Amino acid sequence: MPAQPPLLPAADSFTVAVISDDPWLRSRWLADIRTEALALGDATAAPERIQHRVVLLDVRERHRHLEAAHLVAKADLALVVFGPVGSGEEGMRYLDLGAVDYLSAQAQPSELVARLRAAARYAGQVADDWLVAGSVAVSLSRHEVRRDGRTVHLTPTEYLVLEALATTPRQAVSHEELTRRLWRPEPVTARHSLRVYIRQLREKLEEDPSQPAVILTIPGDGYCFNSPEAIEARESG
Predict the structure, then answer these.
(1) pLDDT in tens, 191-202
(2) Cβ distance 175 to 197 under 8 Å?
């Protein structure tokens, strides 16, 4: 028996983050689905913090948001670009940058909604594992760390320490477990070396390293990555 085609997402099962200066786009064109306005500056500053997996970027009035499109698509979000009539060549540029779809303003509202639903199905198949703690975001699958939307460059050992903590966010990882992961056999100075790497991480990640909010010390237990939410727990879409 042939496999059944996937069902379209229900109108209320996903939300589209809409970047547009046109209030009619959300109230008229997209009245049948859930939407939330998103400022262009917020999207480009920290795309990994966008709470919805589908993003509609309206470029009808302000052309060539290529950098914004690249940043949003790089965050593994399903980006749909809505452009002016007769902009096929520019549409190809957005698709090359990672947008999952591009359509022009000559499309009907029903077609735009259908494309967004297709993007929602695509988004549901894309793994996303951003862990967020304050202004810091960590993706273990990409081996990527960002602070305020900018990539943070860590040494290999610094990353191994952070990875060990972020694997079980908000749970203490003991000194013994951390040193065992980092050094085999463990040197006599392992505990001191671990403290050095924790300090270096805090200098790179914390707003105030003397008052850490991202990497916490748990007295008697070790350290933990203080992520209140995993972005993979976003609503579908």
Answers:
(1) 889 999 999 999
(2) no
